[in-house]
Write a structure and sequence with these properties.
By secondary structure, the protein is of the alpha+beta class. The protein contains 4 helices and 8 strands; from the N terminus they run αββββααβαβββ. It has helices at 30-69, 131-139, 146-150, 162-166, and strands at 79-82, 91-92, 103-106, 115-122, 154-158, 171-177, 183-184, 193-194. The strands form 3 sheets. Strands 2-4-6-5 form a 4-stranded antiparallel sheet. Strands 1-3 form a two-stranded antiparallel ribbon. It is elongated, with a radius of gyration of 36 Å. The N and C termini lie far apart (122 Å).
Length: 197
């Protein structure tokens, strides 16, 4: 049978032709296929590990945030809390330096302290009003009673920061602060006394 004679099914046999610069497709050996499969598996495992770490970090940060904003409730032993957790009747043994307030120490008001949260001020929803306006609005509701002033307490205002505002926190705090000495008792129960000494 001639080399170019048609087969019985009527088709002429074909011969591959590759133009200059082209070559026949490379058929990987079984070893090379195995190496490729192992490399693909390693890449998939590495991707899964990175995704797992990201998920874990997000879960930890979410849990920390949830703990930082849950109400503190009644304090019966010294503890550390985020400023967002504070409410009327929470007493602090010391005030942090001026600036953004994060975590603070809180003690039962029966223990020596220098400040107590005596009021909260809900700020209206809307766009961030700016630090000065948030502080001014909170300060407008933070007035010391005569008894507080007579014992030497002064008002201190904590207003939400822009970052806290962006997370939905809209509460300003009014604290009665004793610049000199310490107090025991709470203004909410009306049994505040100054420490002698």
């Amino acid at each position: 049978m001639s080399e170019h004679a048609p087969r019985q099914d009527g088709y002429y046999p074909q011969e591959a032709y590759y133009a200059p610069g082209w070559q026949a497709p490379h058929r990987p050996s079984p070893e090379e296929q195995d190496r490729r499969r192992r490399r693909t598996r390693r890449m998939l495992l590495a991707g899964a590990a990175v995704l797992g770490v990201i998920t874990l970090v997000a879960a930890v940060l979410g849990a920390r945030y949830a703990l930082a904003v849950r109400p503190l409730g009644e304090v019966d032993s010294p503890t550390t809390a985020h400023a967002r957790q504070l409410d009327r009747g929470h007493c602090l043994p010391a005030l942090p330096a001026d600036g953004a307030v994060g975590e603070v120490d809180v003690v039962p008001c029966g223990e020596a302290h220098v400040a107590e949260v005596v009021g909260t001020h809900p700020l209206p929803d809307g766009a961030w009003p700016g630090s000065a306006e948030a502080a001014r609005s909170t300060a407008a509701t933070c007035e010391m009673e005569t008894a507080q002033r007579e014992l030497g307490f002064e008002p201190v205002v904590w207003a939400p920061t822009e970052a806290a505002w962006g997370q939905g926190y809209r509460t300003g705090l009014c604290l009665a602060h004793l610049p000199e000495g310490e107090a025991r008792g709470s203004w909410s129960t009306g049994d505040v006394t100054l420490e002698e000494g």
